[in-house]
Design a protein that fits this description.
The protein is α/β, with parallel strands linked by helices. The chain is about 35% helix and about 25% strand. It is globular, with a radius of gyration of 23 Å. It starts with a strand and ends with a helix.
């Protein structure tokens, strides 16, 4: 079965993937009068912002928020007229260290962080301020996170605070390879999302991030774009030297003036392998990824009053305990208290293949160790979500590994979360990159847009 370009003979772009990058690229194209078809393998838009039902309300499978200084998501919300759906709230951040809880929400909390000497507490606080003053991140590219953090804060701050967090996030094998730029960006983001008193403020979208994705999808459709769910792309269609469309799993062929892929690099490598040089396909594999297992617990009571609890203990398997209902109230979810436990790991990690019951059995002893009063009977429901290509491993000189948006094959474009550097993956940067590649496509297709009336008349 073959489907040609839009009947009105406008230029036609096929976008593979309906995450935020694909949706916002489609929005830019549709706003410019270009016909666009978005193909998504899953049964909902939003990508990693996909949701499930809890207490009659949708909840993200993987925890989501954005920072007050995330300008691209704020601009998108304004552009689609959805400002009234954004909620800004102060949050509590803490750390679990040496079997004790420490609040770390404000500068005064840092000064009270007794695991460090007072001079080292000052160094810890100054490190965050100095990170925000870095103007040229390229000066950090040759450094590992350890080299930079040790140099900025000293050995004690590194060993007590940063090393356990880095190893908890990436594992002891990968953590030494993480580049300074990755860590700098994290400090810059959190430091820039604070109120006058130093309290951190975060934002959430009413109905969850999938609701925002659906609002963007609705605007794409209103402008004449098409979004097809449960439609997996199996192959690229080549005509001469250029990519001229895609073939879907149900056997349909969609012809296009350009194809934009927003899928993970390993998936894209499989699609492009029959058409591109071996060197190009190999280059796509230079970026490595970690998988993620995210456990979502529904509890009948709260664990603590902290939203984001960093775990500074290498023996604890989760890098953080995120109690979502200390951010978005439990009343939103029928009174259920929601806790996320997140683990980044290699695909071979046992968590990635455990049954849901086995995952809960695995989690309970660690929660009881952290919260002695916790009892398994508190758990009224649990869910396990997994993502194979969840976190790019951002090493030193990572910028040299990133593939270009314009691929070597004419009319084939690529925009993924692995390309948002120097920032790390996140909704804000998915939106930034999606809109940027959308504008590039509009410019590249401008001659066809101008020729559309003549093409239509000839038809």
């Amino acid at each position: 079965m073959s489907i040609s370009v839009a009947p009105d003979e406008r230029p036609h772009v096929v976008v593979i993937g309906a995450g935020y990058t694909g949706l916002t690229a489609a929005l830019e194209l549709a706003q410019a009068g270009i016909a666009v078809t978005v193909l998504e393998a899953e049964d909902e838009v939003g990508g990693l912002a996909g949701t499930f039902d809890v207490g009659g309300e949708r909840l993200e499978k993987f925890y989501h928020h954005w920072f007050t200084n995330d300008q691209h998501v704020n601009t998108l919300v304004r552009d689609i007229g959805a400002q009234g759906n954004v909620l800004y709230r102060p949050t509590r951040t803490g750390m679990w260290y040496a079997n004790s809880f420490f609040k770390l929400s404000t500068p005064m909390d840092v000064l009270r962080f007794t695991p460090l000497s007072f001079p080292d507490r000052i160094r810890l606080g100054l490190l965050a301020l100095r990170a925000r003053r870095v103007r040229d991140w390229r000066a950090l590219e040759h450094l590992s996170a350890e080299e930079w953090l040790r140099g900025m804060g000293g050995d004690a701050v590194w060993k007590v605070v940063w090393k356990p967090l880095l190893e908890g996030k990436f594992g002891t094998d990968v953590a030494p390879r993480i580049g300074a730029v990755w860590f700098w960006n994290k400090l810059k983001l959190r430091g820039g999302s604070r109120g006058k008193g130093g309290q951190e403020y975060l934002a959430y979208y009413k109905g969850g991030f999938a609701a925002l994705a659906e609002a963007v999808a609705a605007e794409v459709r209103r402008l004449g774009g098409e979004i097809r769910l449960r439609t997996r792309v199996d192959a690229l269609v080549r005509e001469g030297e250029r990519i001229a469309g895609v073939r879907t799993a149900d056997g349909a062929t969609l012809h296009a003036d350009a194809v934009l892929a927003t899928v993970p690099l390993p998936v894209f490598a499989d699609l492009v392998a029959p058409h591109a040089s071996a060197d190009y396909v190999t280059s796509l594999g230079r970026v490595e990824f970690l998988a993620n297992t995210c456990v979502v617990l529904e509890l009948d009571r709260s664990l603590s009053d902290t939203y984001w609890l960093n775990v500074s203990d290498p023996s604890f398997p989760f890098v953080g305990v995120i109690e979502h209902t200390n951010f978005e109230p439990a009343s939103t979810y029928g009174g259920k208290h929601i806790v996320y436990l997140s683990k980044y790991h290699a695909e071979s990690h046992p968590l990635f293949s455990m049954s849901h019951a086995e995952v809960l059995d695995f989690c309970v002893p660690y929660l009881q160790r952290m919260f002695p009063a916790f009892d398994r009977s508190w758990v009224t429901g649990h869910h396990v979500w997994r993502a194979r290509w969840s976190q790019p491993i951002v090493v030193k000189r990572y910028g040299e590994l990133i593939p270009a948006v314009r691929t070597p094959l004419p009319d084939l474009w690529l925009s993924t979360m692995a390309q948002v550097y120097p920032e790390d993956r996140g909704t804000n940067y998915a939106i930034r990159e999606g809109r940027a590649v959308g504008r590039q496509l509009v410019a590249a297709l401008a001659p066809l847009v101008r020729a559309a009336p003549a093409r239509q008349a000839a038809a």
